[in-house]
Queue: 2 jobs
Job 1
Amino acid sequence: MDDGGIVGNPELLIKVWEILKVGGPPLGLILNPQKCEWSWLNPECSSACPIPNVPITPTDKIQILGVPLGSEAFTDDYVKESLLSITDGVMSKLMDFEDTQAALFLLRLSFGIVRATHFMRTTPSSLWSKQAEEFDKKVCHTVFQCLSLKPTPEAYEQVSVSTTIGGLGIRRIVDHARGAFTASWFEGQGVTRETWIKLPDKDCSDVYETQKSASSKVDVAIMSHLKESATLRDVQRLNRVDSPHANAWLSARPSNMDGSDCILSQKYFALLFPGYSVNLCPLPLSRVLSASKPWIFMATTPSAAESPAIELRGTIACEMSSSSSPIPVSSPPIWRSWVFSV
């Protein structure tokens, strides 16, 4: 037994304590009063705990299973301590990684928004909105430091959407907290078979949908907004990355499920920036030509790369070499596509 909570009048709680105290030891359950808590649900009650050696926890500082249930000020401080206390140290270590791809992989799956999922599903976001915004800012800074690129609002918008529709999957708490809490709120009522009082719309929607579905809709809305405000050339670029499997190379190794012609075993790739290049990484990668703005990559198929007169003005080229060393690329004002021979 790890944690448990019982709510009732003092007489009931004392009886439960005696039952556990007498019947627990034969089962290996030894009560530790110093690690237990007693809280009066009436914040104005100042009586001592009726059970010896059990400390009193003030009503406005109650937390159960890592979920703050006290005052708004306590909730904000609790989330700040739990979520942000080690963030700076973790982010600085990610920025020092020599392998940018590994750093972004860890940020996306372990040290980004996933660290806040517990609070997103259990605590209304309006109670810790400042901490959510601060965490998102730190993640944004880390992303662009890892890429050695200057952040722009449009860049971070696209970075924050799923890799399946053209982003890097570095999602933001402020975009997805409401959907996560809504899903948890409805699912919790189903598990407990209870009916709870509806929270304000800013924290919880009236309509249930899974967290995955809600996040997907947010991603699509962000990408649609980017396309609406983009230039004709950027719209074409966004449409290309918002295609099935266009960004699979960001999060998965290639597969021979669709045939072996698209896989080059033991090849190298390099991200070639004007003036310098990123270290090589020996991985079997699909034969693709990638080109993008300095803040995101666009993957095109070999047939698209063969199209004549594709001009990449002021962009970054990312190419897959068909030999043991990367193809040298100069950085003139206009880069054109390269054709890979089979």
Job 2
Amino acid sequence: MVEQWLRGRPQGTTLEVVVTEARLAKNQTVLDAIAGERAKVKELVAKRDDIARRPYPREDCKKRVREIVGAAAARGTIDVAPLVKYFRDFAFPTRLMRVDIIGGIDRPAVGLAHDTQDSVALVAWLFKDALIKKLDAAIDACDATGALSHEARERAESELGVALLEVERRECALVWSAKADNLPAEFRHDCSPLAILGCRMIALPPKSGGTSPGHVISELVFDKDPIKLRACGLSLMDIFRILLTLYFVLCAVGCTMQVVSALRTGRFDYRGFVFRRKQRPIVYWINVVLGSCPALAFGFLAAWLFKLGITNT
């Protein structure tokens, strides 16, 4: 049961340990203490069931009657505008019948749906006040002793839920203690998993910056001065863009180093061919210019990708 509850735990939550001491009264055994806590659990469950069986106040029921009848009357309103404007027949209110699926494993399923006259809506539109008056009289005839409103019911159930969980925590702490002493004690099948695990469930704070769950590592964002690092998320596309930018930077540096070396030494090496500035100056300068083009191209691509990453950030 606990394993199934853990697998179905809501996303965006975590478990926090709650320490509950297993206290015993004077001359009280662990098994007697467990029985006492379980008796308290039965009392709280009985109170919770009593709250669930309590009727609702007549005023709330009458308010709900007016909402239901009003919605039905709105559906049943007949629009006579086509008759007045164009002398066309008006339409009575209709509703779509629920689809009945006919068929089984050995034969194909067939769904039948059709429109039918909405007689309930028409009656509610024709006799709205009389219907409400009749329903109010039926509500007044019902026994509403001990009625609880929605607010009072939710407040009472919340208070009982907190008290019940606290008792179950003490009960489970005693059961764990009994198990440690090899005593015959087991957890109740309907006990709260939070009490058995000795923890509470809390919601995790939302991730800052609108980062989606697919972002797994940190991104470096440069502020104005000084350069600072801010933790946010990186997608796979961001990682690919950064790696490609670094590749273009390295290519630009390599091409630049080749051109700088040729200008410094007066010698340009290309695939085993050597062009010297003093011997063949025209060919030499043509190769220097052509060798500078890849460096400029790679540098431009790296700068464009870097600017694209900053803009997306």
